[in-house]
């Protein structure tokens, strides 16, 4: 499945006259390398061959604005596994939009979405508040439309995987995140 996701992304965004960005798997950790680091090509890297990692990293790329896409790993803050409750709350605030897009992308390719708290060592799973915020953001993306990159990718995935419209708000239920 990851190879098909890579193919869809690269068909949509690898054009050197466009966004000149490629999606690549096989890495021990996800990372974003702007063109200045990668000989003129922006590269979204995801973990091993995990489809969920690919979709999540593309979601971060879609959320990142033009200035952030010029910075290594978008210049984002990241605290490794083992975060405190306060750090986990901050993590959840910044992860709502990417995880909401990841859910849309997962739906577009018929893949089950799982909310990630990304904090296994501390034993803190995703809060109910976080889950509700993700669902509400998906509802907003469906009603208002996500940005052009996210929309292009979601619709291209749905076509590739022969899935229904991933921007149908009725396809998303909060209970799915339990």
TrEMBL record:
GO terms for molecular function: translation elongation factor activity. Pfam families: EpmC (PF04315). This is Elongation factor P hydroxylase. It comes from the Bacteria. InterPro entries: EpmC. It comes from Microbulbifer epialgicus. Keywords: Elongation factor, Protein biosynthesis.
């Amino acid at each position: 499945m990851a190879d098909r996701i890579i193919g869809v992304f690269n068909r949509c965004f690898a054009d050197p006259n466009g966004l000149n960005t490629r999606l690549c798997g096989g890495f021990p950790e996800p990372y974003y390398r702007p063109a200045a680091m990668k000989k003129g090509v922006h590269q979204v890297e995801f973990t091993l061959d995990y489809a969920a990692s690919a979709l999540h990293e593309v979601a971060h790329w879609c959320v990142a604005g033009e200035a952030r896409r010029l910075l290594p790993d978008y210049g984002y803050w990241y605290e490794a596994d083992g975060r405190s409750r306060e750090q986990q709350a901050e993590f959840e605030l910044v992860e709502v939009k990417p995880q909401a897009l990841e859910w849309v992308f997962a739906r577009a390719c018929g893949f089950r979405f799982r909310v990630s708290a990304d904090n296994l060592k501390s034993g803190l799973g995703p809060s109910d508040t976080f889950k509700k915020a993700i669902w509400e953001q998906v509802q907003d993306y469906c009603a208002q439309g996500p940005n052009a990159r996210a929309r292009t990718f979601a619709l291209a995935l749905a076509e590739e995987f022969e899935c229904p419209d991933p921007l149908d708000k009725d396809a998303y239920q909060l209970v799915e995140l339990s």
